[in-house]
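Incident review: delayed structure delivery

Summary: a single-chain prediction request sat in the queue longer than the usual turnaround. Root cause was a stuck worker, restarted by the on-call engineer. No data loss occurred. The affected request and its eventual output are reproduced below so the record is complete for anyone auditing the incident later.

Affected input:
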Amino acid sequence: IDTGPFRVLLMSDAGAETESHLAQHRAAELRADILVLGRHGNDLFATGEFLAAVQPRAVILAARDPFRHGLDEVSLRTRLAATGAEVFAQDECGAVITTFRHDHAELHGFIDDRRISLTPRSTKPEPRDSNGD
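Output delivered after worker restart:
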């Protein structure tokens, strides 16, 4: 989603295979200010290669499914922390209210009341061609 000077990348539960394909074939289009990550069962996701391509400044991370096991949460949090992005883990902050203005974006955790403000990057990623390439 491009909104003014900001870009949001919605990954849902894409998983490592999709991330790898995108990082290898569409890396120039991946940079985003806000990365929204779902959970993909036991699959690895938010790989270092993918996060390096996205360069997120904030990450909204879906809550863990208490019935799924095998995901290494410590390793995931370490990879996210290495990006320097502010992480809004929804099992801690609940919903995340995101508001875009012409000169800044605001993220607000509903439960923990944590707030951050992002200013536009100095350069915006190049837009895609009209045919999606």
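Verification: The radius of gyration is 15 Å.
Action items: add queue-age alerting; document worker restart procedure.
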